[in-house]
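Hi support team,

I've been running sequence recovery on a batch of backbones for a student project. Most finish fine, but this one hangs at about 90% for roughly twenty minutes before it completes. I'm not sure whether the input is malformed or the queue is just slow. I've pasted the structure tokens below so you can try to reproduce it. Let me know if you need the job ID as well.

Thanks,
M.K.
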């Protein structure tokens, strides 16, 4: 829809699913292996924390979401205990979190600090990181990176979901809304009509936390290729030096060649 609006100049009313690139082909059978690292996406949510666990299927290949923690109305320590009880926690090297997790709550401790404290007390030391580039904090950029990771314009899939996670809700929260997992969120989250943003109204917001958690990983592992500042300077310097070189047709050597052959 957005491509039609931008490339063909068509008037398009944005509506429908946020992640139409997620379909039956995205669901596979996969068993995690302790031989490779595990990366997690974490959204503390508002009474609805969510964590997705991913592993690369093969070196240099696509990734798979093979496990998740999706709960509601629990304490930070209870959530951290669920994470520590996972059999793969020892293989987890990185947790990519919501940047807002650095903000201190009424207790004076941020979600990031609370999780780190609990994990370290249990002997686990994954690196806890978040988006560093300004564009990575833009929700629509996060949507686009996750959509293209699931399936890009060349029909290549870079992200799958393990079949056991292709299920309905994990119960109901105290607010009366379902506790969505990643499958339900990818399938059912819709755009706010006339907008390129997801519908985060009260009746739909429960679907946002799983895809937000996965989106934080998407901008890190499936970024838009960017040229670093130093690389750009080097390229510009080389281009300028090449432009200053004598031309084969107009330089001094060319003049001597013309005299010899004239």
């Amino acid at each position: 829809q957005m491509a039609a609006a931008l490339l063909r100049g068509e008037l398009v009313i944005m509506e429908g699913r946020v992640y139409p690139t997620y379909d039956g082909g995205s669901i596979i059978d996969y068993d995690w292996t302790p031989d490779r690292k595990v990366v997690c996406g974490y959204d503390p949510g508002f009474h609805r924390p969510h964590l997705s666990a991913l592993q690369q299927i093969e070196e240099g290949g696509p990734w798979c979401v093979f496990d998740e923690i999706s709960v509601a109305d629990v304490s930070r320590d209870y959530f951290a205990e669920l994470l520590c009880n996972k059999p793969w926690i020892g293989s987890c090297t990185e947790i990519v979190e919501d940047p807002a997790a650095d903000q201190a709550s009424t207790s004076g401790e941020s979600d990031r600090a609370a999780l780190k404290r609990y994990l370290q007390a249990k002997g686990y030391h994954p690196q806890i990181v978040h988006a560093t580039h300004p564009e990575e904090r833009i929700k629509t950029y996060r949507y686009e990176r996750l959509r293209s990771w699931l399936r890009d314009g060349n029909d290549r899939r870079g992200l799958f979901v393990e079949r056991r996670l292709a299920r309905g809700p994990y119960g109901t929260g105290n607010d009366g809304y379902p506790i969505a997992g990643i499958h339900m969120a990818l399938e059912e989250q819709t755009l706010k009509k006339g907008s390129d943003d997801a519908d985060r109204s009260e009746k739909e917001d429960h679907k946002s936390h799983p895809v937000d958690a996965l989106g934080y990983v998407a901008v890190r592992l499936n970024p838009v290729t960017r040229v670093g500042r130093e690389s750009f300077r080097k390229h510009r310097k080389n281009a300028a030096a090449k432009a200053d070189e004598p031309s084969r047709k107009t330089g001094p050597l060319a003049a001597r060649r013309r005299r010899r052959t004239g």
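--
Follow-up from support: It reproduced on our side and the slowdown came from queue contention, not your input. The chain is about 30% helix and 15% strand. No action needed from you.
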